[in-house]
Amino acid sequence: MRTFTNWQSLSDADRGASVAIGNFDGVHLGHQAVIDIARAESARSGAPLGVVTFEPHPRQAFAPGAPPFRLMNAETRAHRLEKLGVDVLYQLGFGPELHGLTPEEFARIILAGGLGLTHAVVGEDFRFGKARAGSAQDLHEFGREFGFGVSTARLVEEQGVEVSSTSIRRSLAEGRPRDAAAMLGHWHRIDGPVLHGDKRGKAFGFPTANMSVVDLHPPKFGVYAVSVDVLDGPHQGSYAGASSIGVRPMFGANPPNLETHILDFDGDLYGTHLSVALVEYLRPEIKFDGIDPLIEQMAADCKRARGIVGGLP
Fold it and tell me: How many other CB atoms sit within 10 Å of the CB of residue 194?
């Protein structure tokens, strides 16, 4: 997948895609329905399959002091879109220049002029342009005016519940990763580089790979059975593991992070990138009375995780 962040300097070869447009936070089943319509148009016309999205998320720009809400960082989103067969990702920088454009200007200057789209697909609740004044119907009209096709995707429901990033956040906050996965169409994943930590886990016989969860919507704090993809380096591959998300109450006040013990693994992962999929919530964070009870519980957590994740395809 080719990724472009500067819409103003695209070559002719990089323009003209059939695209899905949106924030795609989570790349859930509703987002995938939008992408599938763009895929069908791509197959019909021979245009590349593309996605137009925004970075940072517009909500971050308009409410910078709000609690973290994103399900995915840009890296995770790009990985998921690539797995869905997207050819080209247009990641538009969401700054004052962009969010100051009227709906007509966005369609004319960005979509038609800069990206040269052949077709655009949006959800029926799509809003765009300054003050979110533009609707999906407006985009249809602009498409006719500026020479690109437009389709609208219906909202998707899963077991009678509207699939949305809000519903997925609620499932994760309540420790229900399988319910989140049913709406996502994939496991909820946290991607990023392995950072240096306090190395306490190694001293206890359970070395962990530490990752930041800054700026992400926090799942329910506690211990999870996880599936881990090592994305690069000599240990690249898929593994079972147990992860703790939280503030490590045994060791004072700490910022939230993700610590993952990979089962049956021996190697150096510092600097490599991991993708950690939350499979099942095992238990809440506990402040133990000493190190021995903590180690005993960690062993039990790993045994449960092995039984859960070891049977996954």
Answer: 19
Distances 211 to 70, 76, 120, 191, 226 between C-alpha atoms, Å: 16, 13, 36, 8, 14
Q: Whose structure tokens read 């936070």?
A: 25
Q: How far is CA 297 from CA 176, 206, 254, in A?
A: 21, 11, 21
Which residue ranges form the domains of the chain, and what is each CATH number? 2-158 (3.40.50.620), 187-309 (2.40.30.30)
Sheet holding 209-212: strands in order across?
188-193, 273-283, 222-230, 237-246, 257-262, 209-212
Q: What is the mean pLDDT for each group of 10 consecutive residues in the chain (313 residues)?
A: 94 96 95 97 97 91 84 93 97 90 97 98 94 95 98 82 89 97 95 80 78 92 97 94 85 80 92 95 88 89 94 65
Tokens of 72: 């995915």
Half-sphere exposure of 54 (CA within 13 A, CB side): 20
User: Which CA distances in Å does 61 have to 49, 93, 209, 213, 218?
Assistant: 28, 11, 31, 19, 19
Percent of the chain with pLDDT strictly greater than 90: 74
Res 204: pLDDT: 67
Residues marked active site are found at 259
Q: How far apart are CA 220 and CA 212, in angstroms?
A: 15
Its pTM stands at 0.88
Distance CA 308, CA 118 (A): 46
Structure tokens of 304?
A: 């449960």
